[in-house]
């Protein structure tokens, strides 16, 4: 189970990583295994609906049980399917890198991170770095 | 008319079939002819939004009166049409195998099954097996 | 964590208890700790939107972390507050007995049950009996 | 304008104040003047839909331009009006103490805080303490 303390460390770690790399201002959310928010942070310079995008990246991953890169591949092959998930998942489904599952060393699903603000690959790199710095496994769907 | 007893037998039969074949953890729903849930079961290892997907597979089928394989074909030829159904059907519309109509020997529509968790073809195989084991006709839209 | 096996035993137990007591046809849902369906059963003679009511009873309880009887008390004292929860909780909030939290012997929250079909007190009695028969603690909010 | 740094200090300050006073586990959100999330934190022991409640407290305040205590008074006198706001505000409207406007020394509106988890008066006390500790003015609607 992810505590708020760990979630905060991950969310802040995402934004710190983005700043270090000179990325655009980011928004990051950390969800628990049930898909509920533990911590959400948005750089005040990031656009106003970034929280919705971060939520839909993380929620899409945890809702289907796969990383954002897998979702992005499915969106290319089966756009109607992913479009339908976007309609029926309670927080939508943004199928793109930057949605990353959090697992423990044994592979157990603990939660998910959603990052948005820069290019998807960059969003994902920040999520991955922050999850690993917290001693957990980042499942990007790679 | 499908009773809860039959619906339960079908839903449980879907998951048992999946376990027998070594498929990923499944979620299955059985709807009556009015499109309303009689029985929904989700393996505790299946991801959290599987109930929404199972519902949208079964609801899409019963909403348009065709099996999921027919819906999947329509989604390829007319993606905008199926995308619109996804918006206007109250439980969405996932156009994929695994949505299966239940008919009696005379062809009368009794309800629908929605299965998700593994690949769509595998989901459908479990639905078909469980419906037939209950002595009813599985209309996959094949 | 509640498995599907336990959830099924509880959901079926609710309807069996209702039949034993001669109650009206019931609908019962069992949610996991994240508020997601494990098992939902509706007697084919129960009205069509009972699943929504069962969900809103169980979801309201788990969303706020209290039993349905507590919610019902709040609804009397603070109707606007409970009305607002009904708008913002993803599955609504029906504040009535029949929404019951499932806890383990140590008090840890494992999930929730929602029952509807007869009078709320009767719905609750069936939920309580089925949870206890499964060796778990029923927190009705009493 | 409230930066993420200040928002984080306030949100964390709310939870720290709650812990100091021995309150139930809390959830706190800080919105900017446009009503968009800067920071949301939920104690992992707080119930799962607390983020929705925190949002609806803060959004209600900023949406109408008054503190939560004023909203609570209006809810008593004009329940239908507040019920309607709950329907039409995009994040709902929970009219209760714990929704607090953030102002600067000149009275300019900078954002809002929403806190939930304990009794409303306690939620509000934590919001007030954290806003003031950040050198800003807490407008509770008192």
TrEMBL record, chains A, B, C, D:
Pfam families: HbpS-like (PF03928). It comes from the Bacteria. PANTHER family: SLR1406 PROTEIN. This is Uncharacterized conserved protein GlcG, DUF336 family. The lineage of its organism: Bacteria, Pseudomonadati, Pseudomonadota, Alphaproteobacteria, Sphingomonadales.
